[in-house]
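not sure who needs this but someone in the group chat was asking about Hydrolase, NUDIX family from Oxalobacter formigenes OXCC13 so here u go. i didnt clean anything up, its just raw.
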Amino acid sequence: MLGKPDRETPIDPLLSWAIELQFIAQAGQTYSKDVFDLERFDRIREISAEIMATKSGLSMGIVKELFCNESGFQTPKLDTRAAIFENGKILMVREGDKWSLPGGWVDVDQSVASNTVKEVREEAGLDVEPVRLIAALDGNKKQNRRYVYGICKLFVLCKSNGGRFHENAETSESGWFSPDNLPPLFTDKNTEEQVRMCFLADADENWQVLFD
């Protein structure tokens, strides 16, 4: 149903347990003072990486680099996606043979609004003004790809103040699409349901922010 969060993407229980073990171990390494407890948390983190390597087929070295390279209390990563409209069509950018709403990970020195502006300028060449938040969704429940860390996907309705696309290191093309003529989507970044949700939000001045 349009406007509703997508169905949750199923996950292998072993992967889910490995991710939870990683979270517990990282928190324990951060707050524990006892040397023996720290050794135990190190081993728990190693076990979680072994499970992930076994299930993914990746080497332990790669898994540890991706899965065990953070310190401190683990929190979700933020990803912004800009919804920009013109004449009833939404702006999308092309990466390879797939399309997505312009956006990306929030840099440590950026707010949600400033990161949205930055990503649109880099990927689509437009200067935009964030207007309002459409949704804050759990990326690991909605996307086709499961990440080993939490993701909060923030969809932001924006107003375009002009600009022009230039091919860059990330995107090769931009285009405007109607809801009945969407291109092949980069579903790791946004699903069809999420794009259609943005159309509904743009048409509704009383839109209520969706969140998981």
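also Residues 1-6 have pLDDT under 50 and may be disordered. if thats useful
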